[in-house]
Amino acid sequence: MTRTTLVTIAVTGPLPEGWVWEVDGPGGMHEGHEATGPQAWAAARAAAVKVMGRLEVPGGGDELRRALAGEAT
Predict the structure, then answer these.
(1) CA geometry: angle at 56 spanning 51 and 58, to 5°?
(2) pLDDT digit string (tens) for 15-36?
(3) Which residues sit opposite 11 in a β-bridge?
């Protein structure tokens, strides 16, 4: 059985309150603020994994894990 999960990650800034990040997916919406853009992206990537619950992708998910960790592919 094939399962497709869509998770949306957005980072906006800089704003007066810092950088705003949002993650929306099947596990719900998560959002927050960070002081810098890289911190906001890191927080959003970590939240994306929580929203998905666990990674289930062909090939073990190594490429997706690296992308979510902010590593170059």
Answers:
(1) 145
(2) 999 999 999 987 778 899 999 9
(3) 21
Contact by Cβ (8 Å): 69, 28: no
pTM, two decimals, is 0.69
- Cβ contacts of 49 within 8 Å, gap of 6 or more: 55, 68
**CA–CA dist 44, 64 (Å, integer):** 14
Query: Residue 19 phi/psi, 5° resolution?
Result: -100, 130
> What single letter denotes the amino acid at residue 57?
V
Helices (H), ranges, the chain: 37-52, 62-68
Tokens coding 39: 């911190």
